[in-house]
Amino acid sequence: MKISVRKGRLVDAKSEAVILSLLEGEKKLSGEALAIDKKSGGLISDFLKHGDFEGKPSQVSVIYNRGKALSKRIALVGLGKPEDVNLERIRSAFSAVLRHLSKINVRKATAAIDLSLKAGAKDEIAQAAVEGALLGLYQFTPYKTVSRDEFKRMDELIIFATTKDYALVQEAAKTARIIAEAVYLARDLANTPANEMTPSILARKAQTVARKRKLSCRVLNRAAMKKIGMNALLAVASGSNEEPKLIILEYRGGAKKTAPLVLVGKGLTFDSGGISLKPAEKMDEMKMDMAGGAAVIAALQAAADLRLPIHLVGLIPATENLPDGRAYKPGDIIRSYSGKTIEVLNTDAEGRLVLADTLAYAARLKPAALVDAATLTGACVIALGEEVIGMLGTDEQLKQDIRKAADKTGERVWELPLWENYHEQIKSDIADYKNTGGRPAGTITAAAFLSKFVGDFPWVHLDIAGPAWTTKDKAYIPKGASGVPVRLLVEFLRGRAKQ
Ligand code: BES
Ligand code: MN
Ligand code: ZN
Fold first, then answer.
1. How far is Cα 298 from Cα 201, in angstroms, rounded to an integer?
2. Annotated catalytic, 487?
3. Are 435 and 352 contacting, i.e. CB atoms less than 8 angstroms apart?
4. Could you tell me the distance, in angstroms and rounded to a whole number, from the CA of residue 320 to the centre of ligand 3?
5. pLDDT digits (tens, 9 = 90+) for 144-200
């Protein structure tokens, strides 16, 4: 969908549908809503008077006006009570109204965004509205071959802004589009099944993203990894016929000599569990075990498109985890890239192994901050549910920055402790560490394991096992891969860019 921003009055624009957002309990119409109400001979105020529309969060009503106002339809969307309005409500409302309009075959709509809402700064409000509109309309359709002409789609959303706010809205809409495109990319990558999203294909996608921008992309293949001793990553890959790839993206938008921000994303293009095979039920969902990696590629795309003045590196260890005659086995001991030895007790705890080598590699870059995103533990879904990211880390300032970005974007995080006692659980009798600490506190012991490979750099680990995938449609996240935590990462990077 194209987003256009125009100067002028909404009431004077002709369109298939004009979108108006209203607060709950709003008795008196104002601004563009009032102007359109007058022009339509009081259609909106009548509608409200009869109680058809209460302005509840994301409530949508469409009024047909027979030629009085310039738009064929007036689409009302609720924002809820004024004191409860926030950016998340705005994203959800704009998603709801655009989804509704696209379902009834509207292709082009006009809207004004109420920038006086007490939800945030003006540019944040405008960005949230456009983001919600775009994110909610996402569809994953490359594999549908039948009745493709019946797909619904919106072509254009035209936003009207006052002369005073025009530049600001224009800029916010551009930012929102770049971020939504990045989320779309992450969703596409994670929704694509494993037969068409192998480590090699993922690496090629990263290269394509890089080629079109001021990004460099290097890919280490199996031989290159062997040479430098990335044996934990290679062990996980040993049961697969697909060659593992370590994807290295770099964006230099800042001064050359500054320490980089480094993002690491787990890139299991399929996780069967390996010899410690997973049950058949829902194993198909493990095609999205590269959601963290997808988010990192997307975040680098957005950083480059937004021209953020930062030095940023993205690292994605990509492989499959499969059982085979050559597969690694429970009991195996691996000498990892860091030199530390790992006893494998469960080949399904593979994410922490590929991350161990990648985090140790990242540490060599002496990062100013290191953030990893991984669908790491089922335990995190049990602890925090399907909507919240588990956060663990070693640096208070970095955790605070991530928390701020999470609250702003609605990709929420909740911190779990990394206390000393948990580290006991991953000590091995015969190696330095073992790759599982048993069932208790599974998310924490996984993070404790990762911490052994990070060194002293400010580090945060995001366990996205819950929110990476959704089994039901959410406000602006259709069923399937969610694109979490792309918006959180980009918001974090924008914050660092301002420092
Ligand atoms: N990719 C899975 C974690 C996962 C589970 C992500 C469900 C999303 C939804 C990970 O590799 C895994 O299998 N973890 C094991 C660890 C255990 C063997 C210590 C798990 O959580 O069961
Ligand atoms: Mn696994
Ligand atoms: Zn996994």
1. 15
2. no
3. yes
4. 9
5. 999 998 899 999 999 999 999 999 999 999 999 999 999 999 999 999 999 999 999
